[in-house]
Amino acid sequence: MAEKRDYYDVLGVNKNASAAELKEAYKRLAKKFHPDVSKEPHAEEKFKEANEAYSVLSDAEKKANYDRFGFAGPGGAGFGGAGFGGFQGADFDFDSLFGNLGGFGFGDLFGEAFGGGRRRPRGPVQGDPIKVEVSLSFEEAAFGATKEIEVERHEACEACGGSGSKGGERTACGKCRGSGMVQHVQRTAFGLFSTTSPCHACQGKGSVARDVCLKCRGHGKVNAVRKIQVKVPPGVWTGNHLRLTSEGNAGERGGRPGDLFVVLFVEPHDVFRRDGADVYCKVPLGFAEAALGAEIEVPTLEGRARLKVPPGTQTGTVFRLKGKGVKELDSNRFGDEYVKVFVKVPEKLGKEERELLERLAELDGKNLRDDSLLGKFKRKFGG
């Protein structure tokens, strides 16, 4: 087993080195030997060696014990192995240490080791979508329509081109050093724990306006209300939605706007009921029409139509009008219309109508006449 090197020799400093000199020495070695960026042989071992040396020498108490007892430590306890646990006594800014490491940051190099996330992507980001609800009449849903809607959304500021800065000039955020994310490091009983969150100073953008735009106050976006024409195809129904590309909120860093989703609600009809592409209605039928048969008018989506009713039609009989339904969505096929008839019995009868019905009942073998003395008297004298 190779003998341990003196911690001061590892960092290349003398015993009187200041905290700043120790930090600078470690920073130089970390950049040079970090396994993710270094191609040199044994880079990982050298990185761990520098890590262990700095974890001891950056802590005043550990440094004092090392200077006095060497590697054995007080009572022969030693200083622990190399690794991130050795940083428990250290206090320095990881982002500062690795912020300029060839485009890498603390989140890139150690994010997974500490449970933290990676850097937020710096490329274009699509805007958020918008959802609106639109009501349609039964006929509009059946035949299609063009509806005008008002949409409130965020749009890129025209004054600054969406940059938030006059002239479009922005500079790297000093808080997050252009990463858009900030690292939070806490000491726990198990070592260091790191989390990341969007930078509040730049709202996660990684840059701030050099000269704030007065119109959007540096946000790069403004609220706007726009009227948009929506073409509704025939055959839609409640719950269907239409997608209008790039009619949503403005994107970030040159990303395209989000999409607009129009959710449809079809109002009920007084006459028709719909099931898919088929429509249904109920039509009254006179007693004589049902008994003798007739040609009647029935409603359709396109107006009135003639329907032949055969003699002896009963209440509940359903007739089919082929192709008189709704056009199927994304198809050239039309549904059918189903007409359900019900025989309407008159509530009041005239004298002649009543006599005819009584005569019909007699022919049918049923005596519905009132043959009492009073009944005969009423018939004779028109009572």
Walk me through the structure.
It is built from ten helices and 15 strands. With 383 residues, it is α+β, with helices and mostly antiparallel strands. It has four domains: 86 residues, Helix Hairpins (Orthogonal Bundle); 104 residues, Sandwich (HSP40/DNAj peptide-binding domain), CATH 2.60.260.20; 72 residues, Urease metallochaperone UreE, N-terminal domain (HSP40/DNAj peptide-binding domain, Sandwich); 31 residues, no CATH class. The strands form six sheets. It has a four-stranded mixed sheet. The protein has a three-stranded mixed sheet with strand order 1-9-8. Strands 2-7 form a two-stranded antiparallel ribbon. The radius of gyration is 43 Å and the shape is elongated.
Q: What's this, in brief?
A:
Pfam families: DnaJ (PF00226), DnaJ_C (PF01556), DnaJ_CXXCXGXG (PF00684). The protein is built from 10 helices and 15 strands.
Keywords:
single chain; 383 residues; Helix Hairpins; 4 domains; four-stranded mixed β-sheet; three-stranded mixed β-sheet; 10 helices
